[in-house]
From TrEMBL:
<protein>
    <recommendedName>
        <fullName>YABBY protein C-terminal domain-containing protein</fullName>
    </recommendedName>
</protein>
<dbReference type="InterPro" id="IPR056775">
    <property type="entry name" value="YABBY_C"/>
</dbReference>
<dbReference type="InterPro" id="IPR006780">
    <property type="entry name" value="YABBY"/>
</dbReference>
<dbReference type="Pfam" id="PF04690">
    <property type="entry name" value="YABBY"/>
</dbReference>
<dbReference type="GO" id="GO:0005634">
    <property type="term" value="C:nucleus"/>
</dbReference>
<dbReference type="GO" id="GO:0010158">
    <property type="term" value="P:abaxial cell fate specification"/>
</dbReference>
<feature type="domain" description="YABBY protein C-terminal">
    <location>
        <begin position="17"/>
        <end position="55"/>
    </location>
</feature>
Length: 64
């Protein structure tokens, strides 16, 4: 299912690198974890640590 571009947000875009890195970290720590469980845990980590969002927005801002 494809969503119109009006649903895309900068948060979703900035979450992508974090999610891939976090999934890799979780799978390295527990190789038997399913991708679904690793993704769910990574998404929860993203949601519960707002300072991650702030840090990524500062790193991505070249106008500072």
């Amino acid at each position: 299912m494809s969503f119109p571009s009006k649903f895309a947000t900068s948060t979703a875009t900035s979450a992508t690198p974090f999610l891939w890195e976090e999934i890799s970290r979780l799978k390295a720590k527990n190789p038997k974890i399913s991708h679904k469980e690793a993704f769910s845990t990574a998404a929860k980590n993203w949601a519960h640590f707002p300072e991650i969002h702030f840090e990524l927005s500062i790193k991505g801002n070249n106008h500072v």
